[in-house]
Design a protein that fits this description.
lipopolysaccharide transport protein A fold; rod-shaped
């Protein structure tokens, strides 16, 4: 009987190969043992309520077990439990191959990392232990026979105070679900097959996900998307990085699209910076010049908000405190407004079918909205200077306030209104207005067209309307009024 017990314990192989004979039956269980000797000398052992205690603090329980000496395999059936100092496992059924350090388990599967608190549940598991011939452990969990996909709950963040004695940061929790989940060495995880990721109030989706615990770095590949309360982001690849406990950087590359409540931004590369899950800064860029990705490598960043759009070599939005403060459009910047397209007529040339502003750089400054809904705006008087031409807007020649929009004007964002729009270096602007002829009818008679060129064009806004325009350096321009119609119109 002692020989049989030792052989069964050896088959469990829950310790390094050099010390496999260190497994013993524990004090509980092990009620029945039966041995069947097969032709050729191999044996099969049957045990009810097995409980094994092995070197390294490993323990294994089950309702029953069958061990085969021919394959060095133990089949554990019913309420399987595996525990060591680092992890625990629960399953309905498991098979352990002692000679190769391989554990297979399925049915109500739950694997917990006792140190980090991460948990994997559901599916069918293959666990390869670290051994003398395997330098790193690995675990693969696939969709089980019940068609329930595996789900991992990953916990990131320190659980102990830092060197200064400060309390640990709250743990960050990621929930990942996919057709397959692979982990290696406890610090790397990959999930494939219609992957879903949830953290905080964010959901993300991709064909493949990779996670590196040390850097708290997530990479989504293939039809990747991030759905957040303030925006949706999509691209062929999305990376989520964390520079510090509060600041997260999100990078979308290849066919990237950001959709907000009032904004749609497309670019080859979009970078978001969020603090405490609130958007702080946004950068949109074309593809890198040395990139091997050529699908849409020539596309420039393009933003659309209601009737307003802007295109440039790069776009940057500053939004500290979750409110837009400034937008920078750099490199062949062009903004277009279609808000007054109702003024267009068939005879109007293409160049005058929208209001637009161009320059090497366009800067839009926003002001916070006060309680009455008006933007706090500085004195709009023109700054003194020999090179500045101040062009006040004649309210008798401008459309009603609810339809006025400058070429660079954007819709008000939450809690902010446009205060100033500046175009610099090779700046020029064209906008349409109702003609001075009071009998003219919008959409039937041509609008008046105002065109100006300068080194710098500044448009000041007040209460959502144009206050005045300043043009500096090399100023030229013209104002065109349509011909008065003849007697027969």
């Amino acid at each position: 009987m002692l020989v049989a017990l030792g052989a069964f314990a050896c088959l469990m192989g829950a310790v390094p190969l050099s010390a496999q004979d260190g497994c013993e039956f524990g004090d509980e269980g092990n009620d029945v043992l039966r041995q069947v000797t097969l032709t050729g000398g191999d044996a099969v052992f049957y045990v009810t309520r097995p409980h094994l205690v092995c070197e390294g603090g490993i323990q294994i329980w089950a309702d029953s077990a069958v061990a085969y000496t021919s394959s060095n395999m133990a089949h554990l059936i019913g309420a399987v439990r595996y525990e060591d100092p680092m992890r625990s496992l629960r399953a309905d059924e498991a098979r352990y191959f002692s000679q190769v350090g391989r554990l297979q388990a399925e049915g109500s599967l739950v694997v917990e990392d006792l140190d980090e608190g991460s948990v994997v549940e559901n599916g069918a598991l293959v666990y390869l232990r670290e051994t003398s011939f395997r330098s790193e452990e690995s675990m693969t969990v696939t969709t089980g026979a019940d068609r329930v996909r595996p789900r991992a709950r990953l916990t990131a963040g320190s659980a102990v105070p830092d060197s200064a004695g400060q309390p640990p940061e709250p743990p960050r929790v990621y929930v990942v679900e996919g057709d397959e989940i692979l982990s290696r060495g406890g610090a790397y995880m990959r999930s494939v097959g219609s992957v879903e990721l949830a953290f905080d109030s964010v959901m993300a989706f991709a064909d493949t996900l990779e996670y590196r615990e040390v850097e708290d770095h997530l990479v989504l590949r293939g039809r990747a998307s991030v759905d957040a309360p303030e925006y949706d982001l999509a691209g062929q690849q999305i990376e989520l990085l964390r520079a510090d406990p509060d600041l997260r950087e999100i990078r979308a590359v290849r066919e990237a699209v950001l959709t907000g409540e009032d904004l749609v931004l497309t670019a080859e590369r979009i970078f978001l910076f969020a603090r405490d899950e609130k958007l702080q800064r946004l950068v949109a860029l074309p593809q890198e010049a040395d990139s091997t990705l050529t699908a849409t490598a020539t596309a420039r960043p393009h933003a659309v908000a209601d009737d307003f759009e802007v295109t440039a070599d790069s776009l940057e939005v500053l939004a500290p405190g979750d409110h837009i403060e400034r937008l920078f459009a750099g490199g062949r910047a062009r903004s277009v407004s279609h808000a007054r397209d109702s003024l267009n007529v068939e005879a109007l040339p293409e160049v005058a079918r929208s209001d637009w502003l161009e320059g090497d750089t366009i800067i839009v400054t926003f002001a916070p909205t006060i309680a009455e809904g008006r933007a706090e705006t500085p004195d709009a008087a023109a700054a003194p200077g020999d090179t500045t031409a101040a062009v006040p807007m004649d309210t008798t020649a401008v459309a009603p306030a609810d339809t006025v929009r400058t070429p660079a004007a954007t819709p008000t964002n939450a809690g902010a209104t446009v205060e100033r729009i500046v175009a610099v270096v090779g700046a020029r602007s064209l906008y349409r207005m109702t003609p001075s002829d009071q009998s003219a009818r919008a959409g039937e008679d041509p609008p008046a067209v105002h065109y100006v060129v300068g080194n710098r064009i500044t448009i000041m806004m007040l209460d959502g309307e144009v206050s005045h325009m300043e043009v500096e350096g090399g100023t030229t321009g013209l104002h065109l009024e349509p011909l008065r119609p003849g007697p027969g119109r």
